Amino acid sequence: MAMAEYVAAAGRYDGMVYRRCGASGVKLPAISFGLWQNFGGAELQESCRAMVLRAFDLGITHFDLANNYGPPPGSAETNFGRILRGDLGHYRDELVVSTKAGYDMWPGPYGEWGSRKYMLASLDQSLRRMGLEYVDIFYSHRLDPETPLEETMGALAQAVRVGKALYVGISNYPAAETAEAVRLLGEMGVRCLIHQPKYSMFVRTPEEGVLGVLREKGMGAIAFSPLAQGLLTDRYATGVQAGTRAARMESLKSEDVEGRMAQVRALAKLAVERGQTLAQMAIAWVLRDGVVTSALVGASSVAQLEQNVAALEKLEFTAGELTAIEQILG
Predict the structure, then answer these.
(1) What is residue 257's predicted lDDT score, i.e. its pLDDT?
(2) Percent of the chain scoring above 70 in pLDDT
(3) Which H or E element spans position 160?
(4) What span, in angstroms and rounded, lies between the C-alpha atoms of 222 and 28?
(5) Residue bearing the bigger pLDDT, 238 or 110
(6) pLDDT score at 137
(7) Other CB atoms closer than 10 Å to residue 130's CB: what's the count?
(8) Residue 52 in this model has a pLDDT that exceeds 90
């Protein structure tokens, strides 16, 4: 049975908040959609399609991928490419599509890290999987301790010069290396648009230097794992539930949950007082600082996606609420 032709919602931009990415001309939605998990494998194609199309109807214009997202690696890009060709092709100029290279992708010495050979080969593979001529943002996914930073940044700059990326960014880089990456790219005539750090109420490392560098250099930030891989949601307010990541012993361990239970319960109570779910409050919290352009969220269902986007209904915090959160977090 053929799928009905997709037509985007006419009012898709009415309810979304768009924030300028640092000092650039680019605006990103306050909530972006990440295809890190739940988008790999052929059996998930229809659910992937439903979530991506609903995201766009809600005003989410930024879709974030990486070469190794799946599983298996590459399958998230392949699935997203099918959606682009089948449904979103007419809307390509309304989308910001990003991908990354840095983690293990293929066998041998050229299949990971930050060499020019790996970075540019990976970008070519990503473009083929998605059926695109260019991505809007191409990231170095992690700092390579053995490859000169100048080489990795040179690969990003080359991607821009040859028209395979409009902008470049970095992810998981410490503060000093972030500043150096900006300097090197600037000497090559390319702006480092954005940094993608792991940032949430439970992971606040970026506050120790990275966010300050971004503010100083006029870069934006897009926070990944703002829900601490699901820990900052109501599903854990009463402990580890069947079917959750912690119960399945995936990326979130049950001991991580148990060690945070008192904080999760207290935060959930405060969220209720604000008229939000814990997940919605956690998303609003990472957006409280203007240097964070967007919160990068995933979803396992359309309903979950819609609940996350509803965080935009209350982004403001009172001074008392922020103080209460700091006291809870200790």
Answers:
(1) 77
(2) 93
(3) helix 149-161
(4) 9
(5) 110
(6) 99
(7) 23
(8) yes
Q: pLDDT by residue (tens digit) across 207-249?
A: 999 999 999 999 999 999 999 999 999 988 765 555 555 444 4
Give the domain ranges of the chain: 18-227+289-299
Q: What CATH number was assigned to the domain covering residues 18-227+289-299?
A: 3.20.20.100
Strand locations in 186-310, DSSP E? 192-196, 220-224, 292-297
Q: What is the Cα–Cα distance from 248 to 259, expressed in whole angstroms?
A: 17
Strands 18-20 and 27-29: antiparallel
Instruction: Report the interhelical angle of 254-274 vs 278-286 (nearest 10°).
Output: 90
Tokens of 267: 């935060």
- Helix 210-217 / helix 175-187 crossing angle, nearest 10 deg: 30
Helical (H) or strand (E) element with 124: helix 116-130
Residue 11 has pLDDT above 60, yes or no: yes
> Residue 151: pLDDT above 80?
yes
pLDDT of residue 258: 78
Dihedral of CA atoms 270, 274, 275, 278 in degrees, nearest 10, equals -40
Angle between helices 45-57 and 302-309 in degrees, nearest 10:
30
The count of other CB atoms within 10 Å of the CB of residue 91 is 14
Burial of 293 (0-12, 13-18, 19+ CB in 10 A): buried
Among 3-12, 249-258, 309-318, whose mean pLDDT is lowest? 249-258
Measured over the CA atoms of residue 22, residue 23, residue 26 and residue 29, the dihedral's sign is positive
Residue 261 CA to residue 258 CA, distance in Å, equals 5
What DSSP designation does 186 have?
H
User: In which element (H, E) is residue 34 found?
Assistant: strand 31-34
Say if residue 71 is preceded by a cis peptide, omega within 30 of 0.
Answer: yes
* Residue in the block written with tokens 């990068």: 296
